[in-house]
Amino acid sequence: MADSTQQMEQQPTTLQRFKASHFWHSFRIDRVAQLSFIVFLIYALLAIFASVIAPFDPYDASQIDIMNSEIPPSWEEGGEEGFLLGTDAQGRDMLSTILYGTRVSLMIGLCAVALQALLGIVIGLTAGYIGGRVDSLLMRIADIQLSFSTLMVAIIVLAVFQATFGTELYQQLAMIMLILVIGIAEWPQYARTIRASVLAEKKKEYVDAARVMGFGRLRIMFRHILPNTLSPILVISTVQIANAIISEASLSFLGLGMPVSQPSLGSLISSGFEYIFSGAWWITVIPGVVLVVLVLVMNLLGDWMRDVLNPKLYKG
C-alpha cells in the first residue's frame, strides 16, 4: 500500500510533463515565438475587451459627431487629446474603431478556420480511412476546389448574392457570408493533410487492435486516428487564420466585406484610402499597420509550430 502511494506521488502531473516537453523547451529558447505570442495575446485581449477599453462606441450614432471628422492623431499638429489616433471621415474615434475592427477581423478569421477544419477533418478522415472510390471522388472534388483561388470564388459568390438580394440584406448578413465563403473555399487544405496522415496511421497496430475489438468506423476514425493527426491541424490552423484575415481584408477593400457601419480592419483601410493623398493618412495607415502586425505574428507562430511539431526537425 505504501509502495503504491509512493508511486502515485512520484508520477508527474500534466503541468510537469508539459514543462519537460520539447514544445515548452523550444518556446522558452525562441525569442521570436515568445514575442509573437505576447503580441497576439495582446491583440486577443484588446479585441475581447474592446467595449470596455474603447473610449467611444463606433456603433453608437449618438457618440459620433461629423464635425470631428479627419482630426489628426494627438501627436500631430491640430490633434486633440481626446482622440489619441485621430478620427476618420465620419468623425469616429480611430482607436475605438480599430479595437472593434480587430475584434471583427479576428472573429471572422477564427470562425472561418473552424469551418474549414470541420469540413476538412471530416472529409479527410473519410477519404483516408475508407479509401477506394470514395477517396478518389473526394480528392477530385478537392482538386477542383484548389484550382480556383479563394478570392475569385469569394468575389463571384458575394457579388452575385449582393446583386440578387440587395445591398441592405447583404450588410445584415455580411459576417456570416464572409465566414461561409472563406471557410468553404479553403477546406481542401485540411482534407489533403488529414488524408495523408490517416493513410499512414490506419496501417498501425493500434488501429488493427481497435478493429479486432469490434469498434465501428466512426469510433476508430474520431477517437483513435484523429488525436494522432492534431499536430498538422494546429500548424495549418495558425497559418489559415492569418490567410482568412487577409482574405476578409481584401474583400472589404473591394467593397464586398464588412459594411462601414460594422467596420473590420479591411473596411477601415478601404474607407480611408481615398483620403490618403489629401493629408488624412492615419485613416488608412494606422489600421494597415495593425493588420500587418497581426498577420505577421500569426505567420511567425505558424512557422515556429511547424518546426517544433515536425519530428524530422527534432534534434533532441
UniProtKB/TrEMBL annotation:
<keyword id="KW-1003">Cell membrane</keyword>
<protein>
    <submittedName>
        <fullName>Peptide/nickel transport system permease protein</fullName>
    </submittedName>
</protein>
<feature type="transmembrane region" description="Helical">
    <location>
        <begin position="35"/>
        <end position="56"/>
    </location>
</feature>
<dbReference type="GO" id="GO:0055085">
    <property type="term" value="P:transmembrane transport"/>
</dbReference>
<dbReference type="Pfam" id="PF12911">
    <property type="entry name" value="OppC_N"/>
</dbReference>
<feature type="domain" description="ABC transmembrane type-1">
    <location>
        <begin position="102"/>
        <end position="302"/>
    </location>
</feature>
<feature type="transmembrane region" description="Helical">
    <location>
        <begin position="280"/>
        <end position="302"/>
    </location>
</feature>
<dbReference type="InterPro" id="IPR050366">
    <property type="entry name" value="BP-dependent_transpt_permease"/>
</dbReference>
<feature type="transmembrane region" description="Helical">
    <location>
        <begin position="144"/>
        <end position="163"/>
    </location>
</feature>
<keyword id="KW-0812">Transmembrane</keyword>
<dbReference type="GO" id="GO:0005886">
    <property type="term" value="C:plasma membrane"/>
</dbReference>
<feature type="transmembrane region" description="Helical">
    <location>
        <begin position="169"/>
        <end position="187"/>
    </location>
</feature>
<keyword id="KW-1133">Transmembrane helix</keyword>
<dbReference type="InterPro" id="IPR035906">
    <property type="entry name" value="MetI-like_sf"/>
</dbReference>
<feature type="transmembrane region" description="Helical">
    <location>
        <begin position="104"/>
        <end position="132"/>
    </location>
</feature>
<dbReference type="Pfam" id="PF00528">
    <property type="entry name" value="BPD_transp_1"/>
</dbReference>
<feature type="transmembrane region" description="Helical">
    <location>
        <begin position="225"/>
        <end position="246"/>
    </location>
</feature>
<dbReference type="InterPro" id="IPR000515">
    <property type="entry name" value="MetI-like"/>
</dbReference>
<dbReference type="InterPro" id="IPR025966">
    <property type="entry name" value="OppC_N"/>
</dbReference>
<keyword id="KW-0472">Membrane</keyword>
<keyword id="KW-0813">Transport</keyword>
<comment type="similarity">
    <text>Belongs to the binding-protein-dependent transport system permease family.</text>
</comment>
